[in-house]
Amino acid sequence: MTSAKPSTELWAVLPQHRALPDTSGEPDLVELYDSHMPPGGVRVQSNMVISVDGAVAGADGLSRSVSTPADMRVFSVVRSLADAVVVGAQTVRSERLTRMSPKPAHLNQRHARGQADVPVLVIVTSSGDLPWDRINERGTSPVWVATNTSDPQVLAELRRHADEVLAGIESPQAVKDALVARGLRRIVCEGGPSVLAQWMDTGLIDEMCLTVSPKLLSAPGAPRLFGEGIATARDVEVLSLVTDGNSMMYRLKVQTRDSSR
Prior knowledge:
A ten-stranded mixed beta sheet has the order 1-9-10-8-2-7-3-4-5-6, sandwiched between helices. A hairpin with a 4-residue loop joins strand 9 and strand 10. It contains nine helices and ten strands. Helix content is 28%, strand content 24%. The protein starts with 7 loop residues before the first helix and ends in a 5-residue tail after the last strand. It is an alpha/beta fold. The chain has helices at residues 8-12, 27-33, 69-80, 89-95, 104-112, 132-135, 152-161, 172-181, 193-201, and strands at residues 17-19, 43-51, 84-88, 120-125, 143-147, 164-167, 186-189, 207-213, 234-243, 248-256.
């Protein structure tokens, strides 16, 4: 095929593929990415971007080197659906994350679902070593810290900065259970790779939101989607595939090899 885009006929036999409309508030994308809720009304979505050669960060160590404008649109939509966004401490440090800010285009939709203006940012850390000056540079979202440290000085420092500290948390399941117990039922895991692998191996990821960026990166040793890999083989079902003609944004329902979840 010499055309830069698939033919109409090709699209016609792949009904789960959709073009990416440019609409204020992204109502089509919001409806699509919120269309699969597991029984019980609790959902864990992961949200990651990879290059064609599988890297989640470029030579500068940042995911924005892999991302594209289309990916950022989906990223914003997935966050807009979340009650809580879970990230590891290393991702907070390397990506220079801050508190999140409300997105005016999504406020009406969030309010209609009974959600706060902005999700809770949940940071998972063992050491408690977090760049609070950077985190507090901007944004208004609450910051919660989930940690398994028992060091009283570290816990005191965390409680001085964080809006809530979930102490004694030693597993992804415990993090999820603590969030659900506090009414946060739409959870998005943004990694990084080691955190995502842990959540996948624990069987907590219901739906992967995965962008394949049209880039080949010269970044030897760059982190991959699941870091060192996952322990359990799994199948996935393609729920949807959205494209702007370049980036491919998948929604994948995660299954085990022997049964659907």
